[in-house]
Amino acid sequence: MFRPADLFDLSQTEHASLFEGCAQAWEALKQIKPYVEAHAKPSSPDQRNGGALIGAQVFIGAGTVVEDGAMIKGPAIIGRNCQIRHNAYLRENVIVGDHCVVGNSCELKNVLLFNYCQVPHFNYVGDSILGHRAHLGAGVILSNFKSFPGNVTVEMNGRPFDTGLRKFGALLGDGAEVGCNAVLNPGSIVGRGAIVYPGVNWRGFLPANQIAKNKAVVEVVTRRGV
Questions:
Q1: Vertex 123, ends 98 and 174: CA angle to 5°?
Q2: pLDDT class of 195 with cuts at 50, 70, 90
Q3: CATH number of residue 88's parent domain
Q4: Residue 220: inside a domain
Q5: Distance (Å, rounded) from C-alpha 207 to C-alpha 210?
Q6: What's the pLDDT band for 48 if we cut at 50, 70, 90?
Q7: How many Å apart are CA 94 and CA 110, to the nearest integer?
Q8: Is the peptide bond before 75 cis (omega within 30 degrees of 0)?
Q9: Ramachandran angles phi, psi of 96, nearest 5°
């Protein structure tokens, strides 16, 4: 149910070897750091855009635009034809696929973005994997750390399963959509084509092509004293 191929089209990343030997997709999170450290090679100077701060161990693919004010701390691997927009902050161990967007005031840490993934506005993405054409609305937070002691768990067969990870944000399957200001709690898994509505506080597994809606009732009243 949570195998890499259940959530992701592995042909839509040049880094599919991260998932080799992974029975569950989240196991690849532990592989990101050594993989990036081994494969990140500094880009040529003409790819290091003016006002951006770019670490020494950062590879930037052809056609990618890094706007002024962005910071790519590294190590990181950025694919081709991406947009790394003003004030984006890419911390340690980040892999961004081809044709991706990382936007204003977004922070990424220990993540893998498949091709055509969009993280465009005011997002925090930590210890997470986002599939092909996954999209986050403005203000979406992928929380990666439990308030209580212990590893992050995922429900499997009706029981909590210890992932072995103290930090684990979310897995978003191919084409998944998360609406503005939604929060995905640690260990959340959103299946292919599934949608989380704006403002939803989500925990757990949302199967493929399902929609998580907010059931809150909005009351409309007449203004007094007008």
A1: 45
A2: very high
A3: 2.160.10.10
A4: no
A5: 6
A6: low
A7: 5
A8: yes
A9: -115, 130
